[in-house]
Structure formats: C-alpha cells, structure tokens
Design brief:
Elements: E1 8-10, E2 17-18, E3 22-25, E4 30-33, H1 37-41, H2 46-52, E5 59-64, E6 69-80, E7 90-95, E8 98-104, E9 109-114, E10 119-123, E11 128-132, E12 140-145, E13 151-159, E14 163-164, E15 173-178, H3 180-183, H4 194-202, E16 205-210, H5 219-227, E17 232-236, H6 239-243, H7 249-266, E18 272-275, E19 290-292, H8 294-298, E20 304-306, H9 320-335, E21 341-344, H10 352-357, H11 368-383
Parallel strand pairs: 6-9, 15-16, 15-17, 17-18, 18-21
Antiparallel strand pairs: 1-13, 2-5, 3-4, 5-12, 5-14, 6-11, 6-13, 7-8, 7-12, 9-10, 19-20
Helix pairs in contact: 4-11, 5-7, 7-9
Length: 394
C-alpha cells in the first residue's frame, strides 16, 4: 500500500481534458463547453445553453502513478417541480480503459425548473469533492468521465503522485451530433450513454455533441461540426424537430441540405453517417409539439404526450415517419456525388420489437438498458469492418 500522503495540486488545463470544444474560466475554475464561444454567442435558447454546458462525453485523462485522486467540482443539479427527485450526477473512473469505480458529488448549485410554466431559478451552493483511492501504484492511464447530465465546473485536481497528459493513442476521432438521446437522457452513467458505449466497442475517441432538446439544424451547430477535427462523423436528426414543432417540411429539406453542406466545407471526404429517428410511438404519425403530461406530473411521474393532429401532416407538419422518408431521399440524392455519405434508419437501433420489450419510460427517452442496446447495435452497424464509419486506416 502506498505511504504517500501529501497531495499534489495540478492545474486543470486543456491538455488534460477530452471531449470539450471550449473551456471557460469562471470565478470557481474551469467550465467545459460542447459548443465554441462563437456558437454560444449566437444562441438565445436557454435549453441549449444548459445542454451544451452539461459535459456529456467530456473526461479528464491523466497518466500517473497516483493511488489517490481528488477532484473538487461545482455541479449544478436540476430539480423539476412536481417530479421525482433526480439522482446526483455520476462520475465514472476508467483505469487503462477498464471500469474501476463510480462516485457522486454532493452539494453544488440547484436549478429548479417548472415545466408547467417554463420558469427556472438557480440557487447557489457549495463546491464538493470527488475521491478515488486504493488505485494501483504502477503507471496507468486514468479517465474520469464527468456527469453527462449535470453542468460541472472543475475547481481543483489533487493526486498523491505527479500527473501528465496521455499521448494521442492513434484512435480515430468520432464526432457525433444528436438530441437528448445522444446526450445521454436516462443512461445510468456517463460511460453508459449509447454514444460512449458505441465508442468503446468501436475503439474510437468520442466527441459528443448530443444536446438535449436541441438537435434543431442550427447553423452554428453545423459550423461547430465543420470546424472540429474528426475522422468519422454522424448526425442523428429528427425527434427534436418534431417535438418542438420548429419547422415544416418546406423548411426542413433545405435546412438539412444546408447543414450537410456546412459540415462538408470542413470535412469534404470524411465518412458522414446520417441517422434518422429511433422509434417513438407518440410521434410516429402524430406531429408535435410534445408537452409534459400534467396528469402524470400530478402523480409524481414525468411523461410526455404528442399534442399535434395527424391530419396536419398534409399541411407540412413533421412526424418521425415524414422525416425518415425525407432523410433517406436526401441522402440517396446527395450520395450520387458524395460517396462518403451514408444513411442509417434509426429503427435499426430501436424499432417495434425493442419498443415492445423496452418501452420508453416517459414516452420520449430510453432507459439505461435501452442505451446499452442502442450503443451495441450502432457499433455493430457503423464501426464494423466495411461499415460506414469503419476506421479509414484499418
């Protein structure tokens, strides 16, 4: 057992973090962002501002002989009025790529959201400390994956041995964009969101630009994808466009073309996979918007319902069925001149049989078991030899 007791404080710097596009210095420490400052300056939506500051896929990566690691953080916890209390965000530790423990940080700020009125209020709280100890004394690579669904400011890092950045492992970088399902929704922990599981199975380095409620074909998001170095790219589009009822089919088609055009400005030949929506029964043939089920909320349950009228599709309102057909058509059209563009029907990841076995608990979001299934299927369909996102070097 190690006899070292003195802990060394190491400055938190960009070379110790992966998965973030920007790091903001705050009065407390370092806040990882998953959109760059220029994109954030063009955003006026509070939902996206919250989502992009939640560090899904962001991890602290260290090479060290330390047996003890302490990390001070300032989390922001979410509380939904009338809904069951949410568990604290989970931090996952990997040692040389293998799971080695999980922990939570108490305290922090509290963001109280009233879904019936749309109001939100922040109550400041204290910094908390995460501690992993009893680690082996040899040199090893540590990864601390930050909570995927809890804004996390990094305040201080302490260890009982020096740390250094981990060199580039030579793995392909996979850049993924999607909705709350890609963000992680109700996954059990940050390494068990479906993109994290798929990345582990596929042997790739993940940059997760899944934004809860905010996969809306925003031009600034397309530019972030364009400007981020990557070897493989996927975009999962559809559910947020329906459940926010943000546009009609007339606007959707050129918006998709523009989104893909922008990505191609920075990645002209990078494998690019367009994924259509997973099965979601409430919106298969019924347009949005979706809304909280206030009856369920009064019983302490969080659930959603579709409020549109299926007849409105004739006037161009979007459903998941409409979007799937149009995405398939767009990709087929573009692929005639873009041999590195591919399409995947989201129902191959989660379809009718899966819905019968593993229904969406709140009618919109998959649970932990479903995240695992989606991640394993995506890895098999996309990263396998000959798949659309197979390692171009391999």
């Amino acid at each position: 057992m190690s006899t070292r007791h003195q802990l060394i404080t190491t400055p938190l710097t960009e070379d110790l973090l992966r998965g973030a596009l920007d790091l903001e210095r705050t009065e407390h420490g370092l806040l990882p962002h998953r959109l760059p400052a220029r994109a954030r300056a063009q955003n006026t939506d509070g939902q996206l501002a919250m989502a992009e500051a939640q560090p899904a896929g962001v991890r602290l990566v260290l090479r060290t002989r330390a047996t003890v690691v302490e990390l001070d953080t300032l989390p922001t916890k979410r509380v939904y009025v009338g809904a069951p209390a949410r568990p604290d965000g989970v931090y996952d530790l990997l040692v040389d790529g293998r799971p080695a423990g999980s922990a939570m940080v108490a305290g922090g700020n509290t963001l109280t959201i009233d879904m019936s009125t749309g109001s939100a209020e922040v109550l400041p709280g204290p910094v908390g400390t995460l501690r992993f100890d009893g680690l082996s004394e040899g040199m090893k690579d540590l990864e601390i994956w930050l909570p995927h669904n809890e804004t996390t400011e990094l305040v201080a890092l302490r260890t009982d041995a020096p740390v250094e950045p981990v060199p580039d492992r030579g793995r392909p970088v996979w850049l993924h964009h999607g909705s709350s399902i890609s963000h992680g929704s109700d996954a059990a922990s940050p390494t068990t969101t479906w993109p994290a599981l798929a990345a582990a199975h596929g042997g790739v380095e993940l940059i997760n630009l899944g934004f809860g409620g905010s996969a809306l074909l925003d031009p600034f998001t397309a530019r972030a994808l364009r400007d981020t170095p990557a070897d493989l790219i996927s975009v999962k589009l559809g559910i947020n466009l329906v459940n926010t009822d943000v546009m009609r089919l007339r606007a959707f088609t050129p918006a998709v073309h523009g989104f893909l055009d922008t990505i191609r400005e920075g990645h002209p030949t990078t494998p690019l996979l367009v994924v259509s929506p997973l099965l979601c029964p409430i919106h298969e043939d019924t347009p949005g918007p979706s809304a909280p089920d206030l009856g369920a909320l009064s019983e302490g349950k969080l659930s959603f319902r579709a409020t549109g009228d299926p007849a409105e599709t004739a006037a161009g309102k979007l459903t998941l069925g409409v979007i799937r057909a149009e995405l398939a058509r767009i990709v087929e059209q573009r692929a005639a001149e873009d041999p590195h563009l591919f399409h995947l029907d989201g129902r191959e990841l989660y379809g009718e049989a899966d819905s019968a076995e593993l229904p969406l608990p709140d009618a919109l979001h998959p649970d932990a078991a479903t995240h695992r299934r989606i991640g394993e299927r995506f890895a098999e369909l996309a990263f396998r030899a000959g798949g659309p996102l197979a390692d171009p070097a391999g």
